[in-house]
């Protein structure tokens, strides 16, 4: 039995480095790109547009969940023959418009919560920024999702194996830069910003008219909408923590740069374990909570965490020096030591949630992954605050 477990573990470690590590590293690069914009303009956001910090975690998670579910829907439609493998199919534009609607409502609710909790500075500008950003990014991300799903299907590759991580990474890639773009536009040309707002609203009206979205079609997605809205509202916890401790996070320098990448990687590790656990549960391979098969999945992925944590910090330090010329405190190396154990906690949490949801006859595929992704944002934000306190005191 011992030899079987060790052989299984070795095989899974090989798979983790061959298959999973490259996708984790790619996602990390996308997250660090967005983090560069966040870190460079963190003080401006914190002092002039603090409401964005409350909304930011929800925006990042929302886009991954909304367009990840769109990729899954398109995949199913392609296999059933309900969607032509072409971007010109009218259903593509219609689905993108529906996803814009699903995204806009929770975003406005998040903004309203930030105002209600006292974050009122430049509140109207923050609302315009998040609405305009949501329309623009949703349009780009919608067609990116459609292209990835359709292209992989036409190439004979299962879209379910490719689309979701790429879509989530592209969401991270676009979110923060788009917010910064509009902040810079406000500072340099308020009139130009207003004109761009009108242009985005006009674009939304035009594509909505062309797509001919009907109320019944929006109602069909009510379960997705309710789930995503609930998770977006839950993300105000991480947003409020980020806003409250933004000063100490900025003082650490490095954490404001790698914040999006940290949250993305924690969510990725958790989602991978949730997906693997769900498959094993459906196949009857997990007979009890204490079982060696899911444990080997967790341990195999755990071996990749030091690689991801170390490269994340090294690339982050390089980006800080290149964009700001600032020196990162030597205490930042605590991130390398603590990151793998935070990943381990997230993975055990993911396994536990998936297992007990299944015991309650709730399919982990439908609930666990978005829930874990959201919860990982909360845990990740708490982790960032703790690291900032250890690094700079306070």
TrEMBL record:
Read off the Gene3D superfamilies from this record. SLC41 divalent cation transporters, integral membrane domain (1.10.357.20)
For this protein, the parts annotated as crossing the membrane are 21-42, 48-68, 96-114, 126-151, 163-186, 192-211, 223-242, 248-270, 298-320, 332-358
Compartments in which it is found: Membrane
Broad class of where this protein is predominantly found: membrane
Query: Which controlled-vocabulary keywords does the entry list?
Result: Ion transport, Magnesium, Membrane, Transmembrane, Transmembrane helix, Transport
Q: What is the lineage of its organism?
A: Archaea, Methanobacteriati, Methanobacteriota, Thermococci, Thermococcales
What is the protein name for this chain?
Cation transporter
Signal peptide stretch:
none
Task: Identify the SUPFAM superfamilies for this entry.
Answer: MgtE membrane domain-like (SSF161093)
State the organism of origin. Thermococcus radiotolerans
Q: Does the keyword Transport apply?
A: yes
Superkingdom: Archaea
InterPro entries named in the record: SLC41_membr_dom, SLC41_membr_dom_sf, SLC41A1-3
GO MF, any single term: monoatomic cation transmembrane transporter activity
Q: Which residues form the SLC41A/MgtE integral membrane domain?
A: 57-181, 260-385
The record's Gene Ontology cellular component field reads: membrane
What is the recorded membrane topology of this protein?
Multi-pass membrane protein
Q: Which Pfam families match?
A: MgtE
**What family does the entry list?**
Belongs to the SLC41A transporter family.
